Amino acid sequence: MSDGREADAAPDRPARVVFVTGPSGAGRTTAINALEDLGFEAIDNLPLSLLPRLLEGDPPERPMALGTDARNRDFSARRLVAEVERLAARPGFEVDLLYLDCDAHTLQRRYSETRRRHPLAPDDDPANGIARELDLLGPLRHRASVLVDTSTLTPHELRAEIGRLFAPGGAAGLSITVMSFSYRRGLPTGADLVFDCRFLRNPHWEPTLRPLDGRDAAVRAHIAADPRLAPFEAQIREMLDLLLPAFRDEGKSHLTVAFGCTGGQHRSVALAEKVANDLAEAGWQVSKRHREVEQRRAPATAGDTQGPA
Fold first, then answer.
1. 19 φ, ψ to 5°?
2. How confident is the model at residue 2 (pLDDT cuts 50, 70, 90)?
3. Closest to 150 measured CA to CA, from 52, 60, 260, 22
4. pLDDT in tens, 97-155
5. In whole angstroms, what separates CA 193 from the centre of its chain?
6. What are the CA-CA distances from residue 175 to residues 32, 43, 261 (Å)?
7. Which run of H or E residues covers position 37?
8. Domain layout of the chain by residue ranges
9. Superfamily for domain range 15-170
10. pTM, whole model, 2 decimals?
11. Burial category of 198 from C-beta neighbours within 10 Å (exposed 0-12, middle 13-18, buried 19 and up)
12. How far is CA 108 from the centre of its chain?
């Protein structure tokens, strides 16, 4: 199973460095976050004076996304062009200059909607700052190896475009965590999809199965004897087959699928294991977590009671 970091540089491939720039309001932050979700090491608002020190020595093991624009105190479009060309000439590097373009009218509308001040005209009409910045960034726009016009793009569409351009294989990655939990201890924070397994046959009531968990073959066989399990699994897979590609195409980078039962030890663990393995075999990037199994305390002392799992 993968940990979701698809974009790690292979030892025999050049290290990829993407400089991200463009006018304020064109979507630079969205693009950098999308690259970070693809496995890039992202550094935003990088002063150009620190660039040589950052990239001296051997090429980085992970691809890097470096954001810089006119708000940086030592920013110079021509200097950034020179740094890009200098780095591109070094062996072991693959360098792109990603320029996020946007027409002035759309930028002005975005500033009007957010009511933010333009960094180059904090006490003036944003239109003046936009015009000044577009003129300042002219050399970068002409030098860009990748130019994306965001004038008509939503943030979701921009993320999808970044994935298409920079993800290995041309598609953005979606990492999935499949977990089990106990309803007695509450719903897991951040779960996107939650499935209740408490209606299934409960191994807790079998003394030989009670100390085991849902990763044990005997426990799985006990649950599988419930005739409701197979249609339940089929419905879940049908739903995930529909939703996962949609979430990926929408630009979501991580999804948590949670299975719950009373004690978080038997039924939820077995279902989480089965679904995680099926998704991994289908090519998804999957990790597993069993909240209660991982946090199980020492055996109960006299007087303690153990509820059904």
1. -85, 130
2. very low
3. 22
4. 999 998 888 888 877 666 676 665 666 777 787 888 888 888 888 888 888 888 888 88
5. 17
6. 18, 22, 24
7. helix 28-37
8. 15-170, 175-294
9. P-loop containing nucleotide triphosphate hydrolases (3.40.50.300)
10. 0.57
11. middle
12. 30
